[in-house]
Amino acid sequence: MATGFLPGSPRHSGMKHQPAWLLAVVLLATSAMGARLAWLQLAQGSENRLRADQNRIRLVPRHPVRGRLLDRHGEVLATSRLTYNLYLQPRLVPRERWPALREQLATLLALPAQQLEQNYSEGLKGDGYRIELASSLNSVQVLRFREQAVNLDGAEVDVDYLRSYPGGPLAAHVLGYTSGITEEEFARLAEKGYRVQDRIGRTGLEQVYESHLRGEWGGQQLEVNAAGQVQRVLGDKQARAGKDLRLTIDLELQRTAEKALDGVSKGAIVAMDPRTGAIRAMASRPNFDPNIFSSGPTTAQWNTLNRPEAPMLNRAMRAFPPASTFKLVSAIAGLESGRYGPTSTIPTSGSFCFDGQCYADHGSFGSIGFPFALAVSSNSFFYRLGLKVGSEELFKAARRLGYGSFTGIELRDEESPGLLGDKAWKKEVLGEPWTSVDTITSSIGQGAVSVTPLQMARLYAAVANGGWLVTPHLVERDTPRTWIGLKPSTLQVMRQGLREVVTIGTATALNDASLPAVAGKTGTAEDPPRPDHAWFGGYAPAEKPDLVIIAFGENSGGYGGTIAVPMVKALLTTWFKPAQAAN
User: Fold this and answer.
1) Which pick of 245, 364, 423, 461 has the fewest CB atoms within 10 Å?
2) Is the previous residue joined to 286 through a cis bond, with omega within 30 degrees of 0?
């Protein structure tokens, strides 16, 4: 008997309507796909086109050449040198092939495989198109790579530029150094055109004039296929080199300053044009070689840079007790206050006692005037002057002459304003009242008084140029100078006294017929329990000065006349050598 479903049974009814359900499902799926395509094409079309282009187009960057730093005559102080780096294009090297290629490169180029792996892993976090595996390859490594390049598909050696300082440590604190940009800096500077591979100025003029020196990146725009192979060049933009920067530094004088500091373990020299504030030399000891930052300092080098002597500290702009060089300020305070006149005299003695305290002097010269007091650096003369004038006038004169404030030099972030520890400071910081001891010690540049060699250069420049407070600068530019309004008689007394320091006083080693007339002041600052500091501040030629020199030996021991004066003499000999040859 035949079997089957009767018409109208449930099974027969379901089969009858099955095509309708299938059609509904197909229509629903098709509608969903259509809606999705419409969404991708219309609502997100531009974004998806951009993603497609990003997958299809790659940019190969070209480093800009950083601008050079030149001395005032055009001699090169900082430049860029060619270097060769090893790169990898990950799209051409599948993950499973990388370990073998890594070992090939490590063996061929004598590179640590661990370092290659680390650079590879870090590089994948970026765009993953071009990873720097190693930098600063030597000529042997480059030649070996070229010979085996056909077997190293995906790896390449390309040219880069590293900052180079031909003089090594010469003027390192002025020039500064560059190093690679950090992730945090990149996030902040990317919008300004910086790239992950960029280097940036860290200190000195490299930092201050970063935007002037850095240039602009260029590169090639390449079209690649799904395998990452280059199909064609879509665009080519040359990198724009940075601009050169001409400094006020005189290379020959700078070399002399660096050599002059060989006699001390720590110290500084500043040489400046007193008429304009142009810095002709600025040296600090100990120093460092900025070239080590171009490829990155080793652990040993980094430890050396961070030793207690602080070789990266620019001592030309750090503050120290000025000692007897400050007596120039005290003398100006006495004359400008009206308490004393140009011909006034003050008694001197081998010992001076006041308020139950006694203070020693290195000699008793009787009653003497200002010029001779500066010449022999009489402490008792300035003890008595300070007490009569008062601390307010002392510190008023110091501020008038630029002490206690920034000088205006380009390296503002590295400069100390120094310290003028007056009554208000002592009460606020130490919580103690001002006493006669404070006035007496301040009058000879001890106590809570500290100045930088650069500030001292401004002071001596003001006497040399007739009463103008100049703005020190390392790059030729228009800088302000301030008329401080010293009485002509005050200037005359100061210039006479500073000249006598050299002719009959504590710096007679500079009274040399081979040099033009020199004027200045020595100083020996106590720094117990450490050895004394040695100072000299002065200028030449005495009648028409064009160079101010400050020499400083930190905890050098000895006196200003024995430690600092020979440094100054070396610079004067170099600076005035052309004039001597002409004669």
Assistant:
1) 364
2) yes
Q: What DSSP letter does each residue of 166-196 carry, written as one string?
A: TTTTTTHHHH--EEEPPHHHHHHHGGGT--T
Residue by residue, what is the 3-state secondary structure of 354-376?
A: ECCEEEECCCCCCEEEHHHHHHH
The answer to whether 572 touches 510, Cβ cutoff 8 Å, is yes
**Where do the domains of the chain lie?**
58-246, 251-287+315-582
Long-range residue pairs from 126-132, CB within 8 A, at least 24 positions apart, any chain: 126/196, 128/90, 128/91, 129/58, 129/89, 129/90, 129/91, 129/228, 130/60, 130/87, 130/88, 130/89, 131/87, 131/88, 131/89, 131/90, 132/85, 132/86, 132/87, 132/197
**Domain range 58-246, CATH class:** alpha beta
Place of tokens 């395509």: 37
Q: What are the residues facing 67 on neighbouring strands?
A: none
| 130 band by pLDDT with thresholds 50, 70 and 90 | confident
In angstroms, rounded to a whole number, what is the distance separating the alpha carbons of residues 196 and 181?
Answer: 7
User: Would you say 242 and 213 are in contact if contact means Cβ atoms under 8 Å apart?
Assistant: yes
pLDDT at 234 over 90: no
> From CA 211, how far away is CA 206, in angstroms rounded?
9
Please state the rounded mean pLDDT for residues 47-72: 70
Out of 3-7, 74-78, 273-277, least confident range: 3-7
Pick the CATH number of 251-287+315-582 from 3.40.190.290, 3.40.50.300, 3.40.710.10, 3.30.565.10: 3.40.710.10
Which pair of tokens denotes residue 435?
């006493």
Q: pTM of whole model > 0.85?
A: no
Q: How many CA atoms, within 13 angstroms, populate the side-chain half-sphere of residue 477?
A: 12
CB 516 within 8 A of CB 542: yes
Q: For 535-553, write each residue's pLDDT tens digit.
A: 999 999 999 999 999 999 9
**Residue 39 tokens, joined:** 């969404």
Q: Rounded distance, CA 565 to CA 563, Å?
A: 6
**What would the two tokens of residue 423 be?**
């009554």
pLDDT confidence of residue 46:
56
Query: What is the pairing mode between strands 267-272 and 279-285?
Result: antiparallel
